Amino acid sequence: MALTRRQFLKWAGVTGIGAVVFNGCRVPDHEIQVQSPVEMPEDLVTGRDNYYATAAQLGMASEGLLVRVMEGRAKKIEGNPDHPVNTGKHGIRAESLLQALYHPDRIKLPLLRIAKGGPFLDIGWDEAINHLATTISDRRPDEVLLATPLLRGRVADVVQTFAEGSGIRLQGFDALGCESVVREALRRLYGQNTQPDFDIAHANYILNFGADFLGTWVNPTHYSRGYGEFRQGDGRSRGRLVHVGARYSTTAAAADHWVYATPGSEGLLAMSIAYTLIAEGTADSSAASALTGGQGARALAAFAPEQVAAQTGVDAQVITELAHELADSHNRPALVIGGGPAGAQANGLFNMMAVYSLNALVDSVNRSGGLIFNPEPISGRIRTTSLRDWKQTLDDMRSGDISAVLVREADLAYGLPGALDARGALRNVDTIVSFSSFLDETSELADLIIPCSTPLEEWGTDEPNPGPGYTTVGFQQPAVNPFHDTLSFGDVLLQTSSQLGLPGLPWENMREAVRALAQDLHSRGRGSVVQPTFAEFWKRTLERGGWWDTGATADGSRPALPTLPSRAPSVTAADPQRYPFHLVPFEGIGIGAGQYAHLPWAQSAPDPITSAAWDSWVELNPHTAEEMGLKNNDVVIVESATGRTIRVPLYINPATPPNVASVPLGQGHRAFTSYAARRGANLLDILEPVEETETGAFAWGATRVRISGTNQRRVVPKLEGIEPARQLHGEELIYVHKA
Amino acid sequence: MATRTQNTRANHKWGMVIDLDRCSGCQACVIACQAENNIPLNDQSAFLDGRAIEWIRVERYWEGDYPDIKARFLPVLCQHCDNAPCESVCPVYATYHNNEGLNVQVYNRCVGTRFCGNNCPYHARLFNYWEPVWPEELRNQLNPDVTVRTRGIMEKCTFCIQRIRRSTRGGKQVEDQAFNPACVQACPTDAMTFGNLNDPDSRVSRKWEDERAYRVLEGLGTNPSVKYLKQVDAHA
Fold it and tell me: A270 in a domain, yes or no?
């Protein structure tokens, strides 16, 4: 009779003989060790691994990467220790690039739709390029729109030259307008066209308005590198972080002091701090004089703490204390940061001007521990198109002035506010060409899909924005051969350009374009790689993952500071009686504003504050929820003044202010692979298409909502138990060191 | 043959220190671990059923009430206890303590009694309730150095033993920081430090003696190989 191990154990257990057997048969140590999980028997050969250095643009972020490749397959992504921006570390989105590469729902070859709404047919690459070229050449150039994300580096050069050569319109798309307001504020204040670096590692005090720079804002991996040193770096005292914001974010949780300010009032608060610094004589005198037009504190008297306390929701005493902390010599250098929802308001530029002017008042501009200016980039950058211009573009689609739309990972149908009905406008366009690797909402409407490769299969470069304070060019090389029959976006444009006979793009493919840039860098004879021959320079640069020149810094010159306004701009908002909650949108820690929702690791990364994943939810204060008779997991209707609604389950968050409702962005896709589709709700659907008054940028933080219950329940998928976990007094799991 | 590693590796005692004052709770360690160790995809139902597998997870605890409220993060992984409560209850010796201080799980011995998980005070052990399934294309990303665990067995953090084995193959002594587990490698704030506690000059040994160092649930006497450095509370 054959006796299995399970049967033996059962038998031994019930007969009592087991006790004798086990007592007498202790397994020898060496036998256990031989069977450890990864000690291969001698006849098994583990594969050889190769590491390729490359770089990737991840939204606004940039990370230098090392890709472990075995048998021609990428296995693991890690940070490149040499790269100045992330110095060996990496975030969730970089890790998830593997899943973009091997995604089961990738589009594997070019697809053509013969009739609107009909099925896609497989076509060859020659036919696809022909169709694309014809789409452009058969129309007046201004009838064709090319929409891309905020591309940088060599591919941006190719895209911009292609658009200039063909005369077509080029617009940069980012669902949240990606900090264009911050950039404009810095341009007006300090004459900078490129975003400065924040020297967090050397600051002693950080006052942050709204930006979740440790979670999702701009380049969290880079900022987190500085934050670790800010807290516990060798040879320095511990820095102090104060966060001002309406949602208790990852950065708010890290802060020593979290200050709730009414959304949209961040500028008032910053101006009030500026007033206090100037009135008490603790501000840099030349900056104070310039910012007030020589009038001193009286020019800002309307922002005295007592004057703004009610509007900001921050006690006058707290405002004064913040000013004192900022002025304290022990806290120098002090750094002031702002962004995210604080800039995404109708008065966003006022807010950001006020916030970033504080750096001048505490003498933290272009110096260690403060703002560090970055030099102008070598390659092009595609800038955000404002919401104001997108509205015009959609009108042009409806009127027929735009008859062809070419989109590269610019999911207009998903990412523009629902009230603008981008989907309807796109339906009116004759021809839509998508260069996406995945069938997102806009690609679903496309007539031609040209599947472009993913970052691990491409040649390119990336100049981080913000950079580390000096010229940095990350080199992107294919770590693996294309997994499917795809070309890179740059290669498609170069082939099409060749067919159309466009000027300015002499390269046959992106590798040649990158080599041409490398030749320019080699000829400089300086920087991180200096070699006598170009062949050696090319090899070494690819090995190191890029080229950077610590001596190539910004020249430091800046224009005179402008005068700050003496009154805050007035803004109108939805009626607080009808819409009692400030809606505070926030990006998912993995999926961002939805552009990474197709990647399972990005989806399954729990939100740090709620531990929720894979779904949408609305966060309310416990007392507010109780007053409304709502419980965790109750499905509620969130309605904005647009009349549009979403239905999401409730997560009672004890850190949510009573008049705030927070909802994550990024879910609610109708398409975009099986991991993203039909999951949660698209918050962009209900956001009011409010423009920032001066720049026309999308004021995505300016929507008010009302919330009503339903009789439905849906459990929020999350790691924690149903009730929020709390520390037990006397049996702490997390001990605290009182400083 | 069987005892060839007995003496040559005895001078390693692997340990980890996690500085809670640096940790931002960003989840980079969680996903890096999943990528390195072939952890099954945690889909929505895994979260809803309370069966998500995370060898390292970031616990979030609240203190106080709004507006004086504070969220604190605690990354929790197998503590590789010297007196591990999980080891003594395994009826088939699937988990044992090796001579480098690791609490090791032998997958092909495990019969899935889950006694070890029940006895782990840190909830660091996770059970495979289902056969792990990846779409065919995504299987290309699997790490060939790490066994894919089948349905019905326990798994947990190994301190990335495959990296330890690769770096110490042949019994060689490795330099401090020559390699790191995936979580430590990824951590953007450098909150995690890993290394050889038998080397008094290693980074981890120096941090081990920090005045802020403590062990979670120290009163249980499990003697973990993971220490945490207390978060610092400045005045609000």
Answer: yes
Q: What is the DSSP letter of B219?
A: G
Average pLDDT of the segment spanning A686-704: 97
φ, ψ of residue A93 in degrees (nearest 5): -70, -35
Is the same domain home to A324 and A312?
yes
Do A205 and A303 lie in one domain? The reply is yes
Helix (H) or strand (E) holding B79: none
> Residues of chain B whose pLDDT is less than 50?
1-9
- What pLDDT sits at residue A10? 65
CA end-to-end span of chain B, whole Å? 61
Strand partners, A404: A144, A431
Mean pLDDT throughout A502-525? 97
Give the Cα separation of A564 and A349 in Å (integer): 12
CB A422 within 8 A of CB A457: no
Residue to test with chain B: of A8, A10, A23, A75, most B Cβ within 10 A: A75
A interface mutation test: which of B141, B149, B161 has the most A CBs within 10 A?
B141
Q: Do the beta carbons of residue A498 and residue A417 sit within 8 Å?
A: no
Report yes or no: A564 and A353 within 8 Å, Cβ to Cβ. Answer: yes
Report the distance separating Cα A449 and Cα A442, nearest Å. Answer: 10
CATH of the domain at A554: 3.30.200
Range of the domain at A702: 581-713
Predicted confidence band of residue A571 (pLDDT cuts 50, 70, 90): confident
What separation in angstroms does the CA of A230 have from each of A235, A238, A256, A606, B190? Answer: 11, 6, 12, 25, 11
Total Cβ atoms within 10 A of residue A87: 17
Cβ A78–B185 below 8 Å, yes or no? yes
Contact residues on chain B for A78, CB-CB shorter than 8 A: 32, 182, 185-186
**ipTM attached to this prediction:** 0.95
- Strands (DSSP E) along A319-424, which ranges? 334-338, 371-372, 404-407
Architecture of domain B14-229: 2-Layer Sandwich (3.30)
CB atoms A719 and B54 under 8 Å:
yes
Same domain, A590 and A678: yes
A467 shares its domain with A417: no
- Mean pLDDT for A320-324 is 98
pLDDT of residue A486: 95
A535 contact partners, CB below 8 Å, separation of at least 6: none
Q: How far is CA B190 from each of CA A227, A367, B17, B22, B232, rounded to the nearest angstrom?
A: 9, 24, 11, 7, 16
Q: Which of A135, A132, A143, A141 is nearest to A402 (CA)?
A: A143
**Cα(A433)–Cα(A111) distance, integer angstroms:** 10
Residue A574: predicted pLDDT: 83
Residues of A in contact with B185 (CB under 8 A): 78-79, 88-89
- State how many domains chain A has: 5
What is the C-alpha to C-alpha distance for residues A125 and A496, in angstroms, rounded to an integer? 11
Instruction: Mention every residue, 6+ apart, whose C-beta is less than 8 A from residue B19.
Output: A231, A232, B190, B191, B192, B193, B207, B212, B228, B229
